[in-house]
């Protein structure tokens, strides 16, 4: 008879990806994204100083299991404690997160996850056979995280706490004192803290939070080019973790991707060495666009409730009078060619994810069509 250790991994469908798979490439206007406007290759080369000769000299050899040393070093300086032995480069942060979850967790172990939340941060652990304990963000409290509630959920059985601040899809975040308390809660029971910092640079009225790996021995940070850097198609990410955890990740990776492609790491190194030149313009654009969303929300206050929180490049409006926004989102796409994400993919069907990090012109046109669709819907 098969035991729980023998049971194969079973992953649930990812509703967000299912929705985007159908609509992402055909929408005229996309105001669904949680990231910022993507850069072109020409812009990347100009900002980072990458010459054609640099690319021409590249040899398409195999790469390092943990990543090219120079790339790990610059990540360690910018997103860790300076120790490159604690850094692994990955094919997007999704690979980093899945590798670490697979390395750390065993069937039956208890893990705290956030809801609403990105599917990888929730369902992957379930697929590994873990017992999920939900730390829920309350819309009635403007999605404000409660550290008291987290404290009540964590027990001696808790193997890991998986968090994402600023949060996707709401934009909620925590203060530095709250971060200290969160880490103290974890340390009290010896739990790992897995911190998805994809949106860490996208904050408006506060400073970015420090890496948890610099504050707590069992803190693990994940980073990506897909959000604030405006380079989602480069598929580059990283994690900063204890070396023993990275060793276990390599054992798993030996059966899958092996390493990040040398071309990607060449470009990534150039971007990381000029990080602020990529991040600052897109943060300024998101800040400006956030003001446009605030104006739109005020004009639509009878039909939409919007909480513009402290971080990220997306908000999570509630559409009044709808038990589910799925049909509205479908209609908005089919009749107006505008893409937003229905909140049902995050377990909140009365909401939608509205992104404001992209093109200002697209956002303005998208919000105009959104208002037209609302008028038609409620007429």
From TrEMBL:
Keywords: Aminotransferase, Pyridoxal phosphate, Transferase. Residues 66-370 form the Aminotransferase class I/classII large domain. GO terms for molecular function: pyridoxal phosphate binding; transaminase activity. The keyword Cell division does not apply. The keyword Transferase applies. Pfam families: Aminotran_1_2. Its cofactor is pyridoxal 5'-phosphate. Belongs to the class-II pyridoxal-phosphate-dependent aminotransferase family. This is Aminotransferase. InterPro entries: Aminotrans_II_pyridoxalP_BS, Aminotransferase_I/II_large, Capreomycidine_synthase, PyrdxlP-dep_Trfase, PyrdxlP-dep_Trfase_major, PyrdxlP-dep_Trfase_small. It comes from Dactylosporangium siamense.
């Amino acid at each position: 008879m098969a035991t729980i250790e023998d049971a194969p991994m079973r992953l649930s469908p990812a509703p967000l990806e299912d929705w985007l798979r159908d609509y992402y490439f055909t929408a005229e206007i996309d105001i669904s994204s949680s990231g910022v406007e993507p850069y072109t290759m020409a812009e990347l080369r100009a900002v980072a100083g990458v010459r054609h000769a640099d690319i021409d000299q590249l040899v398409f050899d195999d790469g390092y299991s943990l990543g090219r040393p120079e790339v790990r070093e610059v990540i360690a300086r910018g997103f860790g404690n300076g120790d490159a032995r604690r850094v692994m480069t990955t094919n997007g942060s999704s690979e980093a997160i899945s590798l670490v979850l697979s390395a750390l967790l065993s069937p039956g172990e208890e893990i705290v996850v956030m809801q609403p939340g990105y599917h990888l941060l929730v369902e992957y652990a379930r697929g590994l056979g873990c017992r999920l304990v939900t730390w829920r963000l309350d819309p009635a409290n403007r999605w404000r995280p409660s550290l008291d509630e987290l404290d009540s959920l964590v027990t001696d059985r808790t193997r890991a706490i998986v968090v994402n601040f600023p949060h996707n899809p709401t934009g909620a975040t925590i203060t530095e004192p709250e971060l200290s308390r969160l880490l103290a809660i974890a340390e009290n029971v010896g739990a790992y803290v897995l911190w998805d910092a994809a949106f860490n640079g996208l904050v408006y009225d506060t400073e970015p939070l420090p890496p948890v790996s610099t504050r707590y021995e069992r803190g693990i940070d994940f980073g990506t080019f897909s959000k604030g850097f405006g380079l989602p198609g480069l598929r580059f990410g990283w994690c900063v973790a204890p070396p023993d955890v990275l060793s276990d990740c390599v054992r798993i990776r030996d059966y899958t991707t092996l390493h990040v492609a040398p071309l990607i790491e060449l470009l990534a190194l150039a971007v990381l060495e000029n990080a602020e030149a990529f991040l600052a313009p897109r943060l300024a654009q998101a800040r400006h666009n956030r003001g446009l969303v605030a104006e739109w929300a005020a004009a639509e206050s009878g039909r939409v409730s919007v909480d513009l929180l402290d971080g990220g490049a997306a908000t999570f409006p509630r559409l009044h009078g709808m038990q589910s926004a799925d049909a509205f989102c479908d209609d908005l796409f089919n009749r107006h060619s505008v893409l937003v994400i229905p909140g049902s993919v995050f377990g909140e069907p009365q909401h939608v994810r509205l992104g404001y990090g992209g093109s200002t012109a697209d956002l303005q046109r998208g919000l105009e069509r959104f208002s037209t669709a609302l008028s038609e819907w409620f007429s």
